[in-house]
Design brief:
Elements: H1 3-11, E1 270-271, E2 289-291, E3 301-303, H2 306-312, E4 319-324, H3 330-346, E5 355-358, E6 363-368, H4 375-383, H5 389-406, H6 413-432, H7 434-440, H8 446-452, E7 456-461, E8 467-472, H9 484-498, H10 507-515, E9 522-523
Parallel strand pairs: 1-2
Antiparallel strand pairs: 2-3, 3-9, 4-6, 4-7, 5-6, 7-8
């Protein structure tokens, strides 16, 4: 069949042209909308400007074909061959190209939004400035493609292969790149904000200046990656490998780094406000200075020696552990959950519920704390529902009076001012929580009241894994028979009535515990 016969039959309403052979034919500007060209031989054909929208071209051969500015929207090209084809500015919106072979083709400024390219082979293809919004490229081969300045907002690239690809200045915001292979790809100044990169392979990738804000990079491999000046604010980097990665002056404000491997990494000049530094691997890490200002504006810049950097990046999670000398039951559990919820509405530092472990005789209530500065406040909130709260309050007041009265020369004026601020905040919390105290007894069942009257032991652990005993009930740990709770309550009441002299720890040990709050950082003026 020649071109004239094809046009006559199409005009007559025939649409079935399966297996047609028109190699090297000139079909420029032809209208074959909705035609069935399954398995057609169209190699080296000129289809520039042609209308092939909704056409069926499954398994068709279009190698070296010219399809510039052609309309292939909603067309079916599943398992078609388009090697070295010219598809510059072609419209392939919503087209189906499942497992299509499009090696070294030209798709500059092509429209592929909503297209299904799952499992397609596009290796070496030029997709500069192409539009692939919401396109499905899962499991596709995009090795060494050129996607510079392309738009892939919300695209699906799960388990796609993009090794050596050029994705510089590409918009991949909100894209799904789970377990994608991106080794040695160029993502310079790319927009990956909100992208899903879980378990992706990004070894030796250039992400300098890239926007990775709120991206999920958990368990991703970024060994040797260039992240100079990248924005990783609010990003999830939990258990991410950043071995020998360069994060010089990267923005990591409020990013999650738990369990990340920073062995041999460079973090000089990183913006680390609000970053919890727990469970990190940091052997051989390089960091000369950091920016801890809330806005990353260098208003709080600190110099780090190798020793201070080691301490700064090797913290443990601060905790408040309250041990109750009684086993909790469901009624008591509901009571403390209700009380802690009420406390959280008054004091925002109590953000997360505690972990509760129960043995046959004791209950262990552990609160994770975001910052050392909040330890004493959270400690008071933790003990507040219990009858030991009054004795604990006396202890804390005496402790901070001792610190402020001594004003030891071993701490700087700035550190002393922060100690006074912690004491002031604690006093404010104590006053604000008194409203709950008046309401507490109205809804407590007897079993809950007995539990809250039990002896307690309150221990703080700071980010350097140092502990401080805040309060130990006089009869804690003493077995007093079946009436242990009531006896311990009476013993506690007696202790409070007599008000024996508070035994405070040595000033040196308290200072050692509190000075770890300040990290020993040296500000750069």
């Amino acid at each position: 069949m020649n071109v004239k016969e094809l046009m006559n039959q199409y005009t007559a309403g025939i649409r079935d042209f399966r297996g047609i052979d028109l190699n090297e034919a000139n079909l420029r500007g032809i209208n074959l909308r909705g035609a069935n060209l399954t398995g057609a031989n169209l190699n080296v054909v000129n289809l520039s400007g042609a209308n092939l929208s909704e056409a069926v071209l499954n398994q068709a051969k279009l190698n070296v074909a010219r399809l510039s500015a052609a309309n292939l929207s909603h067309a079916q090209l599943n398992r078609a061959f388009l090697n070295v084809a010219n598809l510059i500015r072609a419209d392939l919106g919503q087209a189906e190209l499942v497992e299509a072979v499009i090696i070294r083709a030209e798709l500059v400024r092509a429209e592929l939004s909503g297209a299904n390219l799952s499992g397609a082979n596009l290796s070496g293809t030029d997709l500069r400035e192409a539009t692939l919004r919401q396109a499905n490229l899962s499991y596709s081969n995009l090795s060494e493609v050129n996607l510079r300045d392309a738009a892939l907002t919300g695209a699906i690239l799960e388990q796609a292969t993009l090794n050596g690809a050029d994705l510089s200045r590409t918009d991949l915001s909100g894209a799904n790149l789970r377990e994608a292979e991106l080794s040695q790809a160029n993502l310079n100044r790319a927009n990956l904000s909100g992208a899903d990169l879980r378990r992706a392979n990004l070894r030796w990738v250039d992400l300098s200046g890239a926007n990775l804000q709120a991206a999920d990079l958990s368990e991703a491999k970024l060994s040797g990656a260039n992240l100079i000046g990248a924005n990783l604010s609010h990003a999830n980097l939990v258990n991410t490998s950043l071995v020998h990665a360069d994060l010089t002056q990267a923005r990591l404000i409020e990013a999650e780094l738990g369990g990340a491997d920073l062995t041999g990494a460079t973090l000089t000049g990183t913006k680390l406000y609000g970053v919890a530094r727990f469970g990190l691997k940091t052997e051989g890490l390089t960091c000369d200075w950091i920016d801890l200002s809330p806005g990353g504006d260098r208003s709080e810049v600190y110099r780090l020696t190798p020793e201070k950097a080691k301490k700064f990046f090797n913290q443990t999670l601060p905790t408040v552990q309250l041990t109750v000398d009684s086993s909790i039951d469901l009624s008591a559990n509901l009571a403390i959950a209700t009380l802690y919820h009420q406390i959280s509405k008054i004091h925002s530092t109590l953000k997360k519920p505690p972990a509760i472990d129960i043995s046959s005789r004791r209950t262990y209530i552990t609160f994770p704390v975001e910052s050392n500065y909040h330890l004493f406040a959270v400690a008071y909130c933790a003990i507040f529902p219990f009858e030991n709260a009054t004795a604990t309050e006396h202890y804390l007041i005496a402790l901070f009076k001792m610190l402020q009265a001594e004003n030891p020369s071993s701490i700087s004026p700035q550190e002393f001012q922060k100690i006074r601020q912690i004491a002031s905040n604690l006093n404010d919390i104590q006053n604000r929580l008194k409203t709950i105290q008046k309401q507490k007894d109205g809804f407590l069942k007897s079993s809950a009241q007995n539990f809250l009257a039990s002896p307690t032991h309150l221990v703080l652990t700071n980010s350097s894994n140092k502990t401080l005993d805040v309060y130990l009930h006089p009869v804690f740990g003493r077995y007093l028979g079946e009436d242990a709770t009531s006896n311990s309550k009476k013993a506690g009441e007696t202790a409070l009535n007599v008000r024996p002299e508070l035994i405070l720890p040595p000033l040196k040990s308290v200072l050692s515990f509190i000075q770890d709050f300040f990290d020993g950082l040296e500000p750069i003026r």
